[in-house]
Amino acid sequence: xxxxxxxxxxxxxxxxxxxxxxxxxxxxxxxxxxxxxxxxxxxxxxxxxxxxxxxxxxxxxxxxxxxxxxxxxxxxxxxxxxxxxxxxxxxxxxxxxxxxxxxxxxxxxxxxxxxxxxxxxxxxxxxxxxxxxxxxxxxxxxxxxxxxxxxxxxxxxxxxxxxxxxxxxxxxxxxxxxxxxxxxxxxxxxxxxxxxxxxxxxxxxxxxxxxxxxxxxxxxxxxxxxxxxxxxxxxxxxxxxxxxxxxxxxxxxxxxxxxxxxxxxxxxxxxxxxxxxxxxxxxxxxxxxxxxxxxxxxxxxxxxxxxxxxxxxxxxxxxxxxxxxxxxxxxxxxxxxxxxxxxxxxxxxxxxxxxxxxxxxxxxxxxxxxxxxxxxxxxxxxxxxxxxxxxxxxxxxxxxxxxxxxxxxxxxxxxxxxxxxxxxxxxxxxxxxxxxxxxxxxxxxxxxxxxxxxxxxxxxxxxxxxxxxxxxxxxxxxxxxxxxxxxxxxxxx
Length: 493
Description:
Elements: H1 3-27, H2 33-75, H3 78-94, H4 97-109, H5 115-139, H6 143-158, H7 175-189, H8 199-221, H9 233-238, H10 245-283, H11 287-333, H12 335-353, H13 357-369, H14 376-400, H15 405-421, H16 424-436, H17 440-457, H18 465-488
Helix pairs in contact: 1-2, 1-12, 2-7, 2-10, 2-11, 3-5, 3-7, 3-10, 4-5, 4-17, 5-7, 5-8, 6-8, 6-15, 8-16, 10-11, 11-12, 11-17, 12-14, 13-14, 13-16, 14-17, 14-18, 15-18, 16-18
């Protein structure tokens, strides 16, 4: 895909969000002009950064993942496959832009949380479950039983974890190509198309479990005892410095450059080091291929830096401020404003999921592997509905503060029951969809928006469940799609 197609793809994803924010920010809640200007500039930087980043993924990162998966499969060494799978899962997840943003958001609300620690915890969770997922594929262990065991373990761990940490971060535009390439490579070697999907879904349990275990550690270590959650919206407003209008606008972006460049370099460097080692000992590409991979890494670094500058400089600030304003109006203004808040969440969910880069990767793979029998458009429709409901529920929870387990436990029970009736292929796609639905846009704007809404009425920590809900609802939506597809095909499994 060329750069113009990438630009169109990312613009389609961001511009509707811009339209919603500007309409609400100008005509409904009257956000500060500095915040809105920062938001517009940040949005265009996000479009440009994500475009360049995805181009780098296509040029360097995805081919590296596919080639690595293929060569590892050819080695026929299970210990090698599993150990490299863990390393890949860990390193690629640590480099994800949405994981970086998620770490920043968590730190704003829970100052006791170390960003580097939680990033490595999430990365370790993905790496460990990538290893387990491939082990399942090699042994041909039941995918449905794997999901049942994994999510039962999650429920048991969640009993001991603080409620405000139930959630997590999943996979994104860097992780998905690697994980899917590994899964598809192993399945292809076994001539088993029904196991082509599901690895990303298995991996998605990893970061959730890792965050829960990390929270339990903080709880028993006493780190949570004397710490209070803080609101994100206040930070958005206090970030407006003194000086002229232009200075107020651009100082936010200038102040973020140094930290972002350092952060981007730390994210990309381990992945590049892994490429060098793979080139020496495993894949042995030609000089032309190596040059293409290196150029891809340069694009990925530049794109990631621009993306994060846009996010930190203005995009997420406006999201938090808008969420706080709508949340406050919902609390004081009654049912009408509740409807506006929840309706905004529904609209954001429906729009954003269809444009997440990882969702594009998955939907294209589904249509290709299924030979066109599973239409990409239909998959996106069911995903859109599921994610819209998830974010709508998150808005309601943000201002009411109800226990997340009231939704999550019945939701996952329904998901497990649906597995009985759903074809295995669709179960794998459903859990993969749950893993890819929360990408850069969810982790930047939607999470910030939810943080702001939560801060308006509660402690500000009733927001992280949005990731868990976004990961859960596609499991229900896509499996319902699979059951419908099964009956249309005459009940075939």
